[in-house]
Amino acid sequence: MSDDHPPPHALPALPALNAFTLLRALFRRRRRTPGARTPRSAFMLDSIDQAWLQRYREALGFPDHGVPLTFYYLLAQRAQVATMLDPGFPFRLAGTVHAENALRLETPCQPGLPLVLNTTVAIRPPNEKGAVYATLDTTGEQEGRTVFACRSTYLVVRGGRAGHGRTRTPDSALAPLASWRLAPASGRAYARLSGDWNPIHLWHWSARLMGMQRPIIHGMHTLARACAELERAGGRPVALLDARFKAPAPLGSELVLGADPANGTLVVRCGERTVAQGRFAYAGGAADV
Q1: What is the DSSP letter of 195?
Q2: Could you tell me the residue ranges of all domains in the chain?
Q3: What is the CA radius of gyration of the chain?
Q4: CA-based max dimension of the chain
Q5: Are 122 and 134 in contact (CB under 8 A)?
Q6: pLDDT, mean over the chain
Q7: Quick one: CATH architecture of 1-160?
């Protein structure tokens, strides 16, 4: 796509995310074309499906109004997956690991209006362990105004193991705010909502085919549940959510959210393990990104 942005009416429709997308990802080969540009994309969503939005709110525990911050990730994910399936993206999508995610609300969305999603890609140099991360930045715009920004960081090349032991995060001491137990079918339920049918989230047999002992919940399901609990506790919407995924959470396990609204820190734990940790801000509060 050229640097000159085409008018919104000329943009392709935002692609769907479903099991067929997974098949494309599984059979796409890694390519490295000398001199190839890092891909960027622009897509158009005519409007947000109100029935889909309502199912999302009900499934994750959000109030029966508005667009939850984490819902925008479902839109950004569709744009980001399509971008990573572009021939210019030099890594296979299959096997990538969602490592970090940051969402920021800029302007309230009008669900009935078209939404333009622009995505850019940055490939980080290998770190000291040889691991490579790709960062995808997606913005959603309506009538020239930015509604939301989503930055997703994916591990695309695994590095070697370091010789250091685990350190205990100070966020583990955050006061418990809420807890929830993951139903055995919660991975499949979220896949129906999100379109993310990665086998590691579905059944024991499919997770084992991918090298996992047990199926695990989607990381963004964890952040969405945490976001809903933060909104319930604070009585207002969350406008910033920035977290790193630290460990998988098996289906059937109990997750505990700890938070400190005074400094905007959060942690989600599964037993003694930290599943995710990061920061948040309510709408109307300070939110440095």
Answers
A1: -
A2: 1-160, 167-289
A3: 19
A4: 53
A5: yes
A6: 88
A7: Roll (3.10)
At which residue do the structure tokens 């499949």 appear?
188
Sheet with 176-181: strands ordered across: 40-45, 115-123, 132-142, 145-157, 97-105, 238-245, 273-282, 265-270, 254-260, 176-181
> Which of 78, 90, 80, 98 shows the shortest CA–CA distance to 29?
90
Close Cβ partners of 4 (under 8 Å, ≥ 6 residues apart): none
1-160 and 167-289: same fold?
yes
User: Which one, of 193, 241, 253, lies nearest residue 217 by Cα?
Assistant: 253
Give which of 252, 259, 214, 212 is closest to 232, Cα–Cα.
Answer: 259
Strand partners, 282: 238
Contact 138, 118 (CB under 8 A): yes
Q: Which CATH number is associated with domain 167-289? A: 3.10.129.10
Helix count (H) and strand count (E) of the chain?
6, 10
Task: State the DSSP H helix or E strand holding residue 169, giving kind and residue range, or none if neither.
Answer: none
- Tens of pLDDT, residue by residue over 59-98, are 999 999 899 999 999 999 999 999 999 888 988 888 889 9
- The pLDDT value given to residue 166: 42
